[in-house]
């Protein structure tokens, strides 16, 4: 499902939001402005903002999802720069990411309640996941506020041969370090063609929160992939099920 229409006009990119969900263009524009001021060069430069429209500079690069090998060090450097870019006094005024973990937890419980039996392993993952979600309170433990893109899709990270830059901020906002790292680690684009574990610097409380958030996002992909389509290789859904059971175990 497309959430936006992108047109390239020379050195400019015109991104029009077509999914009818409010706030996407505003979040994208806010992110581009913040990063242009606090981390220039990491993302496209903001050019023009209108109703459901963001115009930005075009940046060159190949999406990491298409590369045979991910430049892991440069990817970590780009994400570290993103997370540390916005000063705390500015970050405190930035709205939360579109899907904070509490909202994801509540949505997954709704989906679990509507689950129709599929196969033994998938049903087990949903049942065990629902039990864990029902007792999980994220709280403030392990929270280090950061500005997050809140989308771990490796198609949004571009490699130009020297550095990694980032695009697509329609779900961005104030987040925390462990949540953002977990979302990247469990995004289907990060494991569907072979797995690699990125090494981010986290303190002990963040490491514990990371494990919990990885459970959350692994479960999320079980629901998102249950109606397996042509976008991913055959068997992707069952790989997601096994990942979720591993995280829960």
Automatic annotation (TrEMBL):
Signal peptide: none
Residue span(s) of domain Aminoglycoside phosphotransferase: 11-187
A Pfam family annotated for this UniProt entry: APH
Protein name in the entry: Aminoglycoside phosphotransferase domain-containing protein
Coiled-coil ranges from the UniProt annotation: none
């Amino acid at each position: 499902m497309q959430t936006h229409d992108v047109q390239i006009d020379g050195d400019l990119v015109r991104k029009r939001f077509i999914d009818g969900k409010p706030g996407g263009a505003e979040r994208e524009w806010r992110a581009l402005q913040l990063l242009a001021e606090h981390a220039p060069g990491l993302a496209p430069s903001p050019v023009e903002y209108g109703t459901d429209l963001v115009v930005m500079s075009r940046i060159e690069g190949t999406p990491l999802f298409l590369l045979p090998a991910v430049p892991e060090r440069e990817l970590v450097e780009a994400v570290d720069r993103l997370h540390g870019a916005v000063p705390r006094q500015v970050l405190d005024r930035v709205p939360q990411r579109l899907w904070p973990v509490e909202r994801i937890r509540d949505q997954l419980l709704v989906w679990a309640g509507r689950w129709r039996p599929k196969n033994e392993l998938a049903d087990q993952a949903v049942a065990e996941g629902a039990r864990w979600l029902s007792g999980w309170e994220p709280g403030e433990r392990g929270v280090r506020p950061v500005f997050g893109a809140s989308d771990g899709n490796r198609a949004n990270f571009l490699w130009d041969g020297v550095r990694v830059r980032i695009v697509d901020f329609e779900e961005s906002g104030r987040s925390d370090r462990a949540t953002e790292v977990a979302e990247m680690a469990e995004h289907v684009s990060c494991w569907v063609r072979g797995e690699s574990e990125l090494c981010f610097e986290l303190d002990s409380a963040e490491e514990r929160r990371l494990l919990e958030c990885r459970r959350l996002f692994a479960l999320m992909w079980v629901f998102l992939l249950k109606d397996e389509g042509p976008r991913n290789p055959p068997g992707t859904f069952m790989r997601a099920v096994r990942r979720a059971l591993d995280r829960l175990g």
